[in-house]
Amino acid sequence: MTREKIYPILVNIYTDFFDGLYTKEQLKFMLRKIHLAYPEINSNDFAELCLDAQWENATEKDYEETKKINEERSGEENTPF
Fold it and tell me: pLDDT tens for residues 5-27?
């Protein structure tokens, strides 16, 4: 029940953040407040909810850009020094 209650709140917060209504510091503050308000949700579950909420309104372009960044990073790790 609590997960279902928190998820829409997180989606709204991230949507507003990506629309430029909040700074990164304000986002972190709000997430901390929500996490502290629901101590029955452990940190791993809360982190998973946050990740899901971030991608709720993602576009295909967002997925492609993230995929490209991840591919570039994995390529860098394999580069000899």
Answer: 999 999 999 988 888 898 889 99
Residue 56's alpha-carbon distances to 13, 22, 37, 43, in angstroms, are 11, 18, 23, 20
3-state DSSP helix/strand/coil % of the chain, to nearest 5: 75, 0, 25
If one counts every other C-beta atom within 10 angstroms of the C-beta of residue 28, the result is 11
DSSP SS3 for 39: coil
Q: What is the pLDDT of residues 58-72, one digit of tens each?
A: 777 776 777 787 788
